[in-house]
Write a structure and sequence with these properties.
- By secondary structure, the protein is α/β, with parallel strands linked by helices.
- It has 16 helices and 13 strands.
- It has 2 domains: 147 residues, Nucleotidyltransferase, domain 5 (2-Layer Sandwich), CATH 3.30.420.40; 182 residues, Nucleotidyltransferase, domain 5, CATH 3.30.420.
- A hairpin with a 6-residue loop joins strand 3 and strand 4.
- Helix 1 packs across helix 3 and helix 6 packs across helix 16.
- The site of adenosine-5'-diphosphate has 13 residues, from helix 11 and helix 13.
Length: 398
């Protein structure tokens, strides 16, 4: 019987998955990858094989109403397509591991309970990640599940980088900076030696620019600092989150505008950032195609914040050897990369316009003092690797 591993990345309105088939002791291949999008509105199921050929594109309105039913629909489809396949493990993306989980963990019901306590630290993501784990416990109780945390890659930050400078007694309960998008950064760090060997051991800033956006400062492939902190609200301007904000603004919302905590949470997680500034969209593609001044201002602010934070992390690293762009915007938008690189030319970065337009991987000129790159991320593969290693389905690379 063939062995398979399922990777799940469950969000508020989407369930992304990747299904891997074991080839031999060391190698796995992608059998299918896809997603159920629009959960809660108009759920659409789409699946492609490893070559990108469409396996499924269908509407699931009749069967999928929430995360649990999305898992049911995915499990039924997998069973119909791979009847009799043995699923030897399920790997999950879990946004927050708190202080305790600084590496992937084999899940038990008790650990799941502990992870629920972290929901207030990531209200937009954590409940959905955990609901998927619960659903797999119910549907496939004998299949081992592994949680891979977005915070784990940042667990080596210095005490000073992690500090939340409030009274220390308040911080004892885990109030500190964690950093996120760790699975993406860990993947990028793992491929740098192959794609850009000259900078892999040096000082690199990785810009994960998607709907959620952050920067990570890498030294010798290890995370030194990140623009995201205690929650996924800090740092860069994001699709619907503001990024760094004077905490006095939050006090003002409570005290002067009389808003309730839930209303403030909704504003901060769902109504700010690109969407809030533009009043049009949280989607960068949309905004770049519009001419309204509000759309232009949103894009300008996104670039401004990214450039400012690159400067800050350059100071933390004591200089920089390379800048890497990844995720939806970082991988696909030559315009945003150009604006960020041009505004960062003071670092000695010289953009190669043609290479940038064609997507790299190297997008800086040969004489540029620091190099710039486009490297596609692969969080699913990172989760799969952790799952295989933890379940003994793959030998560690020596
Ligand atoms: P997340 O995984 O955080 O939901 P993604 O990494 O998929 O987000 O990135 C989504 C963002 O990438 C959206 O703002 C989308 O508009 C943007 N994006 C995708 N393709 C392009 C493109 N060609 N040009 C500009 N932005 C793009």
């Amino acid at each position: 019987m063939e062995d398979y591993t399922l990777v799940l990345n469950a969000g508020s309105s989407s369930l992304k998955f990747c299904f891997f088939r074991r080839l031999d002791e060391k190698n796995w291949e992608v059998a299918a990858r896809g997603q159920i999008e629009g959960i809660g509105t108009v759920p659409q199921f789409s699946v492609r094989d490893a070559q990108g050929a469409v396996l499924v594109k269908s509407n699931l309105t009749a069967t999928v109403t929430d995360g649990q039913s999305a898992i049911e629909a995915l499990a039924s489809w997998l069973r119909s397509k791979w009847a009799g396949a043995r699923v030897s493990g399920v790997g999950h993306r879990v946004v927050h591991g708190g202080v305790q989980y600084d590496r992937p963990v084999l899940l038990t019901k008790q650990i799941l309970q502990q992870l629920h306590e972290l929901v207030p630290l990531a209200p937009l993501h954590q409940p959905h990640n955990l609901a998927a784990i619960e659903a797999v416990f119910n549907r496939l109780p004998d299949v081992p599940q592994v949680a891979c945390f977005d915070t784990a890659f940042h667990s080596g930050h210095s005490q000073v980088a992690n500090l939340v400078p409030l009274p220390s007694n308040l911080c004892k309960s885990g109030l500190r900076r964690y950093g996120f998008h760790g699975l993406s950064y860990e993947y990028i760090a793992s491929v740098l030696p192959e794609i850009c060997p000259d900078i892999a051991k040096g000082r690199v800033i990785v810009a994960h620019l998607g709907n959620g956006a952050s920067l990570c400062a890498l030294k010798d492939g290890k995370s030194i600092d990140s623009s995201l902190g205690f929650t996924a609200l800090d740092g860069l301007c994001m699709g619907t989150r503001p990024g760094a904000l004077d905490p006095g603004v939050v006090l003002y919302l409570f005290q002067s505008l009389g808003l309730a905590a839930k209303e403030v949470e909704t504003i901060l997680y769902k109504q700010s950032g690109l969407l809030g500034i533009s009043g049009i969209s949280n989607d960068m593609r949309d905004l770049l195609s519009r001419s309204e001044p509000e759309a232009c201002l949103a894009v300008d602010y996104f670039v401004y914040r990214a450039v400012k934070e690159i400067g800050a992390l350059t100071a933390v690293l004591g200089g920089i050897d390379g800048l890497v762009f990844t995720a939806g915007i970082g991988e696909n938008s030559p315009e945003i990369r150009k604006r960020i690189c041009v505004a960062s030319s003071w670092l000695g970065l010289e953009l190669d316009a043609q290479a940038n337009a064609s997507g790299g991987p190297r997008i800086s000129t040969q004489q540029s003092k620091i190099s710039a790159w486009v490297v596609p991320t692969n969080e699913e593969l990172m989760i799969a690797r952790h799952t295989w290693l933890l379940l003994g389905l793959m030998q560690p690379v020596s």
